[in-house]
Structures are given as C-alpha cells and as structure tokens.
Amino acid sequence: MLDLLPQIQEWFQAGQDVAVATVINVLGSAPRPVGARMIVSADGRMAGSVSGGCVETTVYEEMMDVLEGGPPRKLHFGITDDMIWDVGLACGGTIDLFVEKLDPEMVAALVAHVEQGVPVALATVVAGESGLGSSALVGRDGVVLGKAHPRATALVQEMLAARTGGGTLLEVEPDAQIYIEPFLPPPVLLIVGGVHTAIHLTRFAKELGFTVIVTDPRAKFANRERFPEADQVLLEWPDETFQHLNVNESTYVVLLTHDPKIDEPTLAAALKTNAAYIGAIGSRGTHAARFDRMAQWGVTREQLERVYAPIGLDLGGRTPEETALSIIGEVVAVKNGRTGASLRATHGPISPEPRACAACSSAPEE
Questions:
Q1: What pTM was estimated for this model as a whole?
Q2: Is 130 helix (H, G, I), strand (E, B) or coil?
Q3: What is the DSSP letter of 339?
C-alpha cells in the first residue's frame, strides 16, 4: 500500500471517503500477489490493481457498496463455469480479497511511522463473526492504535524483529482470521567510494527500492553532480560514517574504493555492526593481502568470513555497468535468501512461497 498512500492522503484531504480492496490469499497462479491493493474514492476514482483487470469491475462495485454504508467483506474469485463468464478470471488460480473502508486516523498513524522509518504492521480482522474489518497498528513494543488479538500482536513482533515482509493470514480461532502486513523501512545500500561503478550501482539500487548513501572523503568523488539520485552523499571518512549512521540488519555495505587506507578501517567498522551484507571489491590476491593486514584492526579470520570478497556474482562483466549489475545481483540474492545461481540449475519454487504462519493452529483458508 505504500505506493498508494499519497493518493489516499490526497483523497482524504479532498473530503472523500476511501475504500480499499486487498489481496489476502492466493492459490495457484494469479496476476497480482498477496498484498496487492486497489483503492476507490467516494466520487468513483480508482487507483491500483488486484488482478490486472480481470476482476476489477466486480470488485469496484463491491467497494462502492462499502462506501455507501455496506459492511466490509471477504471476496473469493476462482475459475468456475459462472465465474469465467462473470469476471473472466482465466489465470489458473483463485484469489481472496478483503474490501473495507479506510480509517483516516489509522492511515495517518501508518504514514507517520513510515515517514519516520519505524517498522509497524497492520492487523485486520478479515473473517469471523466479531470485529470484521477492525484494524490495529502494531509496532515492536505492542499496539500503537486500535485493538489487536494477542496472537496477532505476538506474530507482528516476531515478524518485525526478523524484518519479515509480505502479508500473512493468521487463524486465531475456527472461521476467524486476521490479515497481517508489515510496513518495513526500505533497505539501505551504503556505498563506500564514489567511483564510476558506484554511479551505476546507485541507479540500479534506486530502481530496486533501496535508500542509497554514498560516502567518500574525496570531494571529487563525493558530490551531488556525480550522484544526483543518491539519498545522501557524505564527504567524510567512511569509518566516521559508521559512527553516526544506524547500520543494522537492513543495511547492505559495499566497499568500492580499492584504497587500503579507506577500505581497511571501514571494513573494521562495518564488521562491528549487524549489517546484512558486507562486500568488498578487488581481486582474490588483493583480498588475501588485505585480510592478512586486518589483524592490526582487531579483526579475526572468523569475522572476515562475513565479507563477500571478491564481490558480486560471476557474470564475467568488465564494464562499470556490468560490475554494478553483478554487485546489485548479489545484494538482492542475499536480501532474498537466495544463492544467485541460474534458475536452470536450481530446484523448487522460483518465487518465495507465502509465509507459513507458525502461530496458526490450522492452515489458512484457501
């Protein structure tokens, strides 16, 4: 919903009520994933998508009914003789949607937390006889706004601690379900060294939704002219950067300077954090010599095993663009818990499976 928040706020400011339809469950093949949303304003404007067009007309009518005072509701679309003619869902799967009227107070609280970079989750009752459509905003320390089932609160805190994204259906009792969706701060790519490869790496990372920070003590490398798309460009020694930045498990650190007096103190500082990824450019020989010298910084061989060096996937690239592609490919693979190997050489699902809810007493409704 993050991409739709500006539109939602604009409609609220114009005095419009807003309904939202959310994909809460997918079985088989479907054109839009769990978490996809469509919004409709009281004056009939629409944004977003829940199926790529094949059920939108019917969903739109249901959403308008909710805006006219009807109750929130769960909708199910699948391939039956009637449905083929009714909504034309011919993509080989079934989808469950939940349609509700948005609460401006809840949206405002969500926006405030997102803007501050504070991870939270929405927990919405999507099935059951009691509280259908009621939502709660839950953070790491508990409920922020609304009322949440204790099991939902516990699962949210588990997901936020693990920075687990993606929507989850939690069955709290027979025929009662809560849809939980975390809203996590975007991952941060910290690029050490404003070299040519870093320019392309910044562009790739921004396209992929990263917050990008470039740091370099050399003014000719660390400037806005070279990095207009970066979120921050810091003219300082990178090891100093680690003293004031919050480097955490959603931070990915890439060292590109090829300069020992920058790389080594930076690497020592990075290894003291719980960064999700630390990669360093250079040949195998360069890394062997660098690692031998790292003992003077109090870094052990065991700690150095965290470093991805040589950096990047084996694409055989030679240009700065190809090198940047190799690096961002490895970063994305690590972020998603994958190897980066060719899909032809792997087995199992191509996309991550929907999260299995360990807290559920039985499987979510399909």
A1: 0.70
A2: coil
A3: -
